[in-house]
Amino acid sequence: MTQELPPPPSPEEPAPSLAEELEAARAEPESPPSIETVNESLRDGINRCPKCGSTDVRLRGSSGMLMCLFCRNEWQETRVEERFGLGEGIRDLDGTVIASGAEDIAADAQDTVTFKCEGCGAEVVVDTAESLNARCHWCRHTLNVNSQIPNGAVPDAVLPFKLTKDEGVARIREFAGRRRLFAHPRFKEEFVPENVMGVYLPYLVVDAHADATYRGEGEVQTRRWTEKRGDDSVTYYAADVYRVDREVSFVVDDLTLEGSSERATMGPGNTNNIVNTILPFDTKNAVQWNASYLTGFSSEKRDLNVADLHPVLEDQLLSIGRSEVQASLRQFDRGVRWEAEGVDVGGSRWVAMYLPVWLYSYFQEDKQLLHYIAVNARTGETMGSVPVSHPRLFLAALTVGTFLEGIAGAILVASA
Amino acid sequence: MMLELMVAASEDDSPWVLLLGGPIGGAATYWLIHRYYRNTDKSHAYERDTIIEADPVRGSEERTGHIAKTRKSGISGDNSGHHRRRVQRLR
Ligand SMILES: [Zn+2]
Ligand SMILES: [Zn+2]
């Protein structure tokens, strides 16, 4: 196995004088600089076509670009990856770096934003819990929320829908179609995949570097033999026992965590694991915020802060480290039992993003359970939960069981 | 549970354990179909589907003992393949 020794400790440096320490403190910024991602080219309320100035702008699904409905001009916002250097310097991250769209949600932040319409001067209220665009009732200008209000509604970046609604419907229809036989009859009756919703779900996308440490016990087989015991032969083993230590340093790029507490809670009482399963997204293609990408779609507001998700990050980093060290355990042919583990996150960078999902939901009344069929609107990966008809399933199990029991009975009769 | 039953069945030579085939097969059918429809076991495989750059693994092992004779074919509580099963936290 690889045995890399840590570099020898550097000789103790002489303690700095008070003057030197003060000098150093002055040179260092108070807190790590956060990444400012507000789209400066947009002002609240107006997202104008750069060519003709119209405000009738929306996402053209097939191209993933913004399109002016008036002059058909297409353009897009810049990718945040290059714009804010998100792909680089992960190893050099120190502490927790938070982009401006991922900053803590203020407890007293309002969901509603009031604009003065540029077209006519009327006041227009946008409820950001519902939507980030609104049309002025008087002059029909489309108004957009582009500033990062501290209520979690405006992220740093957005990954535009790529699969069209028709493509989303087709995937959902196919997924459910392969699960018809044992599906709950009411589900089949009420299945209308055209009711699918295009939703931007909130995520925090994390870059980090970490050191993970594991301690446990491993066993190596030294002998294997059989002994006769009456008519039976019994296999025995002898083994050497080892104390095993492993350590690995690694960098993760774009680890994606749910930013809504409702979505992040997974368990038997919900089907949120379905939405989790369609990860990952091509987050490298996310672009700078522009509310026009959301026109015609719905969105869910982020309600989790970086601090809330730190334990989730550590948990996932521990799992990643475990998977990384697994290949170094081959000599322990009787297996390894990890008993203790630790992770030290040297640095992390957090960026808030909206990621696109086609979501079909079905509420099963007898179980009070909300089922989802979800389509990753970038990769097309589809996962779902289809309510089952338990009587039918039971009948199938009974049939198979009876059949096998019949065979068993026949063998017993034949051998008797 | 089912796996243990089958192991028990294979270790015992009595032909009557064949009669367990019916209940086990029935339960397996139920479980497999249920999983295919409800997918309760699925989640994002971030250990594999994330861009990860790892340095070479460091570590050591030290022989601490010997098991002279056991019927167990593997270590008890092997969790080396269950990356998400958390154990005691260091520090
Ligand atoms: Zn235009
Ligand atoms: Zn107006």
Note down, in words, how this protein is organized:
The complex is a heterodimer of chains A (416) and B (91). Chain A is built from eight helices and 16 strands. With 416 residues, chain A is an alpha+beta fold. In chain A, strands 4, 9, 10, 11, 12, 13, 14, 15 and 16 form a nine-stranded mixed beta sheet that branches. Chain A has a three-stranded antiparallel beta sheet with strand order 1-2-3, with no helix packed on it. A two-stranded antiparallel ribbon of chain A has the order 5-6. In chain A, strand 7 and strand 8 form a beta hairpin. Chain A is flat, with a radius of gyration of 28 Å. The N terminus of chain A is likely disordered. Chain B has 91 residues and is an alpha+beta fold. The longest helix of chain B is centred in the N-terminal third of the chain and has 18 residues. About 8% of the residues of chain B have low confidence. The interface between A and B is large, with 98 and 69 residues. Strand 11 of chain A pairs antiparallel with strand 2 of chain B, so a sheet runs across the interface. Bound molecules: zinc ion (2 copies).
Task: Summarize the structure in short.
The complex is a heterodimer of chains A (about 425) and B (about 90). Chain A is of the alpha+beta class and about 425 residues long.
The most extensive contact between chains is: A-B, 98 and 69 residues
Fraction of helical residues of chain A: 10-25%
Low-confidence stretches of chain B: 5-11
User: Number of helical segments of chain B?
Assistant: 2
What is the number of strand segments of chain B?
A: 3
